[in-house]
Amino acid sequence: MEAHRLRNLRSPGELRARLEREGTPRTTLSFYRYVRLNTVEELRHALYQAWEALGVLGRIYIAPEGINAQVSVPTANLGAFRQDLDGRDAFRAVPWKIAVEDDGKSFLKLMIKARKKIVADGLDDDAFDVTNVGQHLDAATFNRKLEEGALVIDMRNNYECAIGHFEGAYLPKADTFRGAIEEVVEMLGKVNGEDVDTNPQPETGQPATDSTLHHPEILLYCTGGIRCEKASAYLKHHGYNKVNQLHGGIIDYARQLKAMGLKSKYLGQNFVFDERLSERITDDVVGTCMQCGAPCDRIGNCHEATCNMLLVQCEACAAKYADCCSPSCREIHLLPMEVQRVWRKGRSTRSTKTKAINDPEGLRKRIREEEELLALRGTLHPELTSINQKEEASA
Ligand SMILES: [Zn+2]
Ligand SMILES: [Zn+2]
């Protein structure tokens, strides 16, 4: 079959109608694996052909480093889909996670994309063995090792840690995965009192030094487990051998807690990537309001559309700043829609403001300065005067 026919050509409306008509029960599941894949393009076409025939819908990324898939499979074809995966060396026995809340309509079409990476992580994969990962631990074992004093490290983005994390976890401050993992290597080096070498030379075959013998037991975790695959391989490449990772991430940890009646060592909320933004694991409040510093784990985005900055914001501050990050955003957000539209023209919707997550004090300082200016001038956006005049003239 020619490559260009191996893709969906129908409109979203048609696709939705087809899914409604179909009426077959579907199961949503996800899986990933870091594994060396050759001839990614050819594999992509072969998978498309095989999985389309099974009625699989979803979003799949494949790359020379592996596969990352979220799919919806007709429940009757789950066995055949498992067989297809197991029939391919690279994907044999790949563990999958079945979504708990599932209306079977999570995907409208099958999309398989060949990419450079399955997760954009900024690391040079050729420099280390991405398949040499840490040991996967279930919730009970993870808890036990934590109690025994293992070093627990959060591999998520800094803003995800702001509303929940494991007890005593090291929370990297960096804004990127690469920055975070390098920060972790540096921190571990300090724990060991070593000179840090972020670019280790190839194995020299020398026996382990005293310091490597004293490497701490490491526990890594992230939302769904995928980021720990790369992180654990990276740490092992740097000579750390006692590297463990939470199997299935916080999402599966929460499921195991319920199923087995375990006590959560994860405190607060788990940041999730859908419209909810977070799900509560325990009632602990680990965060603080970025605007007033009160204990708080209420997370949202600045409602001013061109700002959209991620905020941990208490109810009182949300009321005071009209769900915005600052007086200047509030001023825009409270204008009539048509004036906002004129003001927005030509402005980027991507926030150029410094992220407040690592510098809430900076945000508070900016708020104080803006309040002073506002009291003095009555506006933080003098350009609004001309916009308002034009709007009034045309009205
Ligand atoms: Zn507040
Ligand atoms: Zn804002």
Commentary on this structure:
This protein is of the alpha/beta class and 395 residues long. The chain folds into three domains: 3-114, Alpha-Beta Plaits; 125-260, 3-Layer(aba) Sandwich (Oxidized Rhodanese, domain 1), CATH 3.40.250; 299-359, no CATH class. The protein is 36% helix and 16% strand. It has a five-stranded mixed beta sheet with strand order 4-1-3-2-5, with helices on both faces. It has a four-stranded parallel beta sheet with strand order 6-10-9-7. Helix 12 (337-344) crosses helix 14 (383-394). The termini are far apart. One zinc ion (ZN) binds next to loops.
The shape is globular
**CATH topology annotation of the largest domain:** Oxidized Rhodanese, domain 1
Strand order of the largest sheet: 4-1-3-2-5
Ligands bound, unique: zinc ion
What is the gyration radius calculated from CA atoms? 25 Å
Which CATH architecture of the largest domain? 3-Layer(aba) Sandwich
> What is the CATH H-level superfamily of the largest domain?
Rhodanese-like domain
Range of helix content: 25-40%
Q: Supply the CATH class of the largest domain.
A: Alpha Beta
What does the average pLDDT come to? 86
Question: Which residue ranges are poorly predicted, with pLDDT under 50 across at least 5 consecutive positions?
Answer: 196-211
List the helices and strands in order.
Answer: HEHEEHEEEHEHEHHEHEHEEEEHHHHH
